[in-house]
Amino acid sequence: MKKCIVIGCGAAGMMAAIAAAKAGADVTVYEKNEKAGKKIYITGKGRCNVTNSCTDTDFFDNVVVNSKFLYSAFYSFDNNSVVDLIESNGCPLKTERGGRVFPMSDHSSDVIKALTESMKKLNVKVNYNCKIEDVICENGRVSGVKISNGKVMKCDSIIVATGGMSYSSTGSTGDGHEWLRKLGHTLNDCLPALVPLTPAEEWYKQLQGLALKNVKVSLYDEELYCKNGNNKKSLIYEGFGEMLFTHFGISGPLILSASSFYAKKHYGKECILKIDLKPALSFEQLDKRLLRDFEENQNKAFKNVLGGLVPSSMIPVVAMLCGIDEKKAVNSITKEERNALIDTLKGMVMHITGTRDFNEAIITRGGVSVKEVNPSTMESKLIKGLYIAGELLDVDALTGGFNLQIAWSTGHLAGENAAIDE
């Protein structure tokens, strides 16, 4: 039997261990935490968005970076395979809005239990509270790992699945990146992704806790926007859905998705975010509605009529941004002021200066260059017998279960091939 060592007992690590053991390897997992799946435990607000029930085309459309690299991994172990494996180990699943798949119980711990039970059935040995200090190579091939107590454990193949840099409290502290860098791998800059954005404006603090539904956000490169306006050249991301104002900036599904495209090519640059509060109405349609509302409420103060268009907490902010006195009677509002109001409702502007840090990022952008990893096996092209899976790789996707699917697919492919490693 081939001796296979898996470093990391998260999503990719557990799946790699299961696949390697099923393929006949003698598998040992080393995990520096006291238990398995600490990051899985907190995903999906503790519910664990296991995967997405989408088509293969939709899956790849939701991968922001290096989607083609994942073809072999996904087609060899897709979303249906994940569902089958988890359900067959005692954790029934359900599908919700947007194809998001969750455990029926709404407890991420049940997903972890299913995976650890599967490892147990396959006689996978798991060592908790056991930190790996180094990956040992001889003559261009892995030969073992050095444990923190000084012991060297020999093996035929190693799967590194230690995660990225996000949520360091779960153990993702960049250990794997350092070992792989020392072994000659190129690391593309690691940046926080699927992370809240920070604006320059201060008025967002007045809206803390406000959630907006059915809005459209558009993120633009500020320099290109100033040159070309809001055309395709300056557009970084556009989406429709929900967002949230917080004590530090903006968050929510739409903003997290926007942040991944921001991190892809524009990290560190100032960008312009426009929020369309009325995406279902054109400029002309909104103007007609305002004229009707103003006609019906001629003697009322502007702020009292605005309550029919936006949440009450937004009234002072919208009035400030469009430059209309809240107390002004609507029958004295000019056409120019009405146009300014429409511009604000259809394009509330925020200047984005950056993101929150890794402690608030769901995933890590960047990591091991996929050019140095065989996409058909997940084996390093530089070191024989070394396999890399999960968030360590420079591959990432949007929210909705897609990033966990990347972990399952790459982990499974690595495990299968590490077991038959020549």
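[next item in queue]
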Amino acid sequence: MKLLKNKKIYTGKSMVQGYIRFDKTIFEINDMKYFTPNDNDIEIIVDGQIVIPGFIDIHSHGGYGFDCMDSNSDQIDYMVKQMTIKEGITSYFCTTVTQSFENIEKSIINIEEASKKNKVIAGIHLEGPFISKNFKGAQNEEYIKKADKKILEYWNSISNNKIRLLTYAPEETSYEFENWCLSNGIILSVGHSNATYEQLCKSSTSHITHLYNAQRGLNHRELGVTGYGLLTDGVNVEIICDGIHINPQIINMTYKLKGSDQIELITDSMSAKGINKEKSNLGGQIVYLKDNIARLEDGTIAGSTLKYIDAFKNIIKFTDISINEAVNMTSVNQAKKFGLIQKGEIKKGKDSDFVIIDNNYDLKATISMGELYINI
């Protein structure tokens, strides 16, 4: 049995100065005062005294030179492995963009094939194409379509029911479409939307895609998508916590309004993450990277180069919260929202997904399903 000991373990509910025995799943976790050596212990010796649950990124288009839209299954597998090793991600939703139906289909097939090789791939996030042209952001307007239940049903079937999250514009959508999504376990997330507060109150959404970005904003006479996300209990909001997409003071304000149990940190990363290239790609569109900011040719911000470990560091820096509260935003909330029952906490019987960090929150190692990955 593998063993980590003498660590500060933030379980997702509490902190214990203790030990963990594990293989693919967690066999035992307890305070060091209860520790008794076993003959079959295999102690894992790594730098870093803090252990937290593995990170769950539900919104990321790519990194390390590859994009979920146009990479083959081996490339997607490689990309996700790099995210595990270098960022601490142990559950990942491959995220598509608004493109032709044919290209989205190809992407879904490649993601599904990659998921057979890499169990960190826990689902698919379809960002579009059923969005609003008014708030297209970095999505390609040419391929924006009205919501189509038949095509979504087909995509879900070829994904082996891996579509877990759909970014959509409810003002462009029918109740029949929404009900089909809910009955098939697909969380509806408002994004790239011009919906009013009144329209959202009548919708079936329970999630907001990259809050503040590419959506009808908060106005003193109309709450819009942003106001709905901030004020509605039970609605989780995504935050790109890079200090670029959202001012750090606004992130702090969001925490004060929503608390730590309704925010999910995302990277919204693209292929340029982790590589040194001035010119890159996002779902078929050329992206230029300057001063760590990715933009389309017209200047529109396009995804990020944010690493998840840096999102964890930033949320603590921007809000002065505890590690336990940060863990809510990086693991616990995502696991609850998307029914990842084996993930999100360090608890007996759960999957052995850990991030090991030092007192500066620098990533030292990741353990994914019991396998150790050292961050070199």
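[queue empty]
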